[in-house]
Write the C-alpha cells for this entry.
Amino acid sequence: MSTTLEHRLLHVEERIRQACERSGRNRDEIQIIAVTKYVSLATTREALDRGLHHLGENRWQDAQVKWNAISGSGQAEEGQPVWHFIGSLQSNKAKDVIGKFTYIHSLDRLSLAEAINKRASQLDIVVPCFIQVNVSGENSKQGLAPEQLFDFVSQLRSYRFIKPVGLMTMAPYEAEPEQTRPVFKALRELRDKLNRRSEAMGTITHLSMGMSNDFEVAIEEGATWIRLGTILVGKEED
C-alpha cells in the first residue's frame, strides 16, 4: 500500500510541476486536497504520513469514523489534518460539520449561510468558505448560477462568522480534459471580476477546481486548491 501511494504522489507531483511550467506558475501556489471519501481509515492515516495534510470528505456520515479516530479522539496525533468539506451540505447537517471541518467548499445558498453562521457563532469561530458556482450549467451540478454570484456575496456581509475565501466549481467529466478549460477559465474570470467590485468582502483569492481527470487544465487556468481522490489515494471497495 505504501509504495502505491508513494508512487501516485510522485506521479501527481510531476504532473503538477509540468502544468505549472506550462502556465508560468509557482508550485507553492497550489494546495492538494486528498479526497479520502472512498478509502479506509488506514489509507487516510497513510496519506497524512505522506504529508497530505489537507483531507476532503463529501458527507459527514462517511467521514465520521475517520474524523473521530484522527481528530476527535482527544489524543493529539502527529500531522493533524486540515479537514475540507467538499460535498453538498444540507443546512440541517451544518451543526455536525462546523467546528470539525476547517473549510467548507460548497456554500451556495443563504439558508446554508444562515446555518453555518449560527453554529459558528455558538463556537465563536469564523469559517472560511468557498462559494460554489455552477459554471457549466449542468442540472446535476450544485451551485449558484454565475449571474447570482455578485448579489450573493453582497448578502454574505451580514454573516459575520463566515469568511468567503474563494470560489469552487466542478467541471463536467470529459474524456478529453482540454474540453474543461472554458469552465475553469470562466471561474477565474468571475473571481477577478468580483474582486474589482466593491461588493467583495476583502479579496477573494482562491479557486477550488480540478479533480483527478482535469487538474492539470485547472492549474493552467489558476486553480489554487485541487481535489484529488482516485488518482492519488485510490478507491477501495467496501
The chain has a mean pLDDT of 92.
